Amino acid sequence: MSATAVAAGAYLHHLELNSTDPTRLAGFYARALQMQTNCIDSGHWICSGPDRSLLISLGSDNHLGYAAFACRDADALAGLRRHVEAMRAPLLPSRSALFGARAFSVCDPEGNYLVFGLAKEPAGRPAPPLRGPLQHVTVNSTDMAAMEDFYVRLGFSLTDRVRDESGRVTAFFVRSTHEHHSVGVFLKATAGLDHHSYEAGEWDTIRDWADYLATLNIPIVWGPGRHGPGNNLFVFIRDPDGNMIEISAEIEYVRDRPVKEWKHEPATLNLWGPAMMRV
């Protein structure tokens, strides 16, 4: 079985964000992303809605605790575990309270933890007015070659790269489902969390999200625009800790095509206007 086959179908299920003020941050996600919140203790919160969940834990601001991917079934999870063992990557205990005992973690070359497990059946609850499943997470890196090698060996499929005039890779995108990317990596002087994204599905739903955020006086800080890689429409907001949040729509579905190469230029990040350049 190929590495890609092992990872196929593992979708981004939830994230843990660290914060110096978890209560404030949980309150923001409850309002802005229409999530229900549950305080585990003074330093830990669970924020959840249909197909979107966050754990918020006491720690440094703008820090990704981990990204958790749900495998399609127990056999897929066991196959991925065997694959990680074969690639001789350290197999670490699960960091997630939302996955069962069979879950495990790995750590990428920049210290980002990935958890793989099985999603529990969601408790019955009414859907919020606005659609927005958690869709992807992006991080910054100082060693793009090591990061690309790690994610491809782990079993993610490389979708697109961005290169500057010297040939240096400044961004790449990998997927574990049919959607254009599950993880994006950007070259930057310091490693860490870049942003995480919720998939609205259609352009009209981005409009509805923007109208809703306006009622809360939460401004759009980037967009509306359209990315080159992924071809998705977007708006970005910031949470109180400064984390960037994307609300995206109509991301490219990739079945089988060659890896695309893009120029490192503003139009690659935003075909419609100003870009948020990392380098």
Q: What's the overall geometry?
A: globular
Could you name the CATH homologous superfamily of the largest domain? 2,3-Dihydroxybiphenyl 1,2-Dioxygenase, domain 1
Spans of at least 5 consecutive residues with low confidence:
none
The CATH topology of the largest domain is: 2,3-Dihydroxybiphenyl 1,2-Dioxygenase, domain 1
Count of DSSP-assigned helices: 6
List the domain count as a whole number.
2
Helical residues, percent:
10-25%
Largest sheet data? 9 strands, mixed
**What order do the helices and strands follow?**
HEHEEEEHEEEEHEEEEHEEEEH
Please supply descriptive tags for the structure shown above.
alpha/beta, 2,3-Dihydroxybiphenyl 1,2-Dioxygenase, domain 1, 8-stranded mixed β-sheet, 279 residues, single chain, 2 domains
Describe the structure.
The chain has helices at residues 3-7, 22-32, 74-86, 144-154, 203-215, 266-269; strands spanning 11-19, 36-41, 44-49, 52-58, 63-70, 92-93, 104-107, 113-117, 134-141, 157-163, 169-175, 183-187, 192-201, 222-226, 233-238, 244-249, 260-263. The chain has 6 helices and 17 strands. With 279 residues, it is α/β, with parallel strands linked by helices. The chain has a 9-stranded mixed sheet. Strands 2-3-4-1-5-8-7-6 form an 8-stranded mixed sheet. The longest helix has 13 residues, at 74-86.
